[in-house]
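Dock biotin; give full complex structure.
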Amino acid sequence: MNRKSAALFSSQSESNEFARSLRAHAVGKQLQFFPVTESTNDLALAAARAGGEHGAVFVADHQHKGRGRRGRQWESPPGLSLLFSVLLRPRGVEPEKLGWVPLLAGLACAEAIRAHCGIPAGIKWPNDIVLPCKKVPGWRKLGGVLCESALSAGDPDPSYVVVGIGVNVNQSARDFPKHTKAPPGSLRSETGKSQSRQAVFKALLENLDRRLQQLGDATLKDDVEAALSRWWSPKKRLRLQLPGEPDRTIEGTFAGLDAFGRLRVSVAGKIENLADAEVVAVS
Ligand code: BTN
């Protein structure tokens, strides 16, 4: 364990008590804590295949093989961040609407961080939790969401999605990897004080539970667009990198999302609908 960091829970009975204290319908009602594991997404995927319950949460103090989007690694020193995965079995939601899950999860986390820490956290399409700022590239990343479905895991059972969430809580600058394209931030570095990981975790899980009830509802699109518009105003230029084209970027302005959560960008007066892309700068 890191020099100053205490375990998130000292025993399974403490984590059981925490789970009982949650004001939630489903998320976290079943919660398992691991001091160390390879990836909490792997734990949740295995639980899904074994018939695990909707809302089950797997949380770890340290991951040896944490993964991020596009095959990247997700590294964090032990005990400084929140690393967890939630198993969802969304009922009555068409599979093509599941593209909203990472946006919903990011929004739920950003809102909980705003309310709990008093900093203007937001989301960056499609899966980042950020703090917008003036310095290049236009934000500091506070966390990210990696959704893995039955489909991406090569499982014929289409009924589940695993939502993996990593939030930087108590890191200071020296705890982050040296060479990152966009310098990350943590709740501690942005508020100037160390945060209780348990208190932040409770705020995240309860808000995720609340927002999940909106999945499949048309109002979710309005809320996600409103959150993005808060910093992607019509004056802001987005620079985007398209998959498979690392040497080329396109520029445009935010023009909302389509019914499936795809990004709409106005590029030289023409609307492009992007299912997969990376916003590399906002200015
Ligand atoms: C990203 O920004 O690329 C997404 C990062 C998601 C990281 C979390 S940490 C908990 C869960 N387990 C993993 O292996 N990944 C996700």
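Observed: Residues 39-41, 63, 66-69, 72, 74, 83-85, 127-128, 144-146, 164-166 surround biotin (CB under 6 Å).
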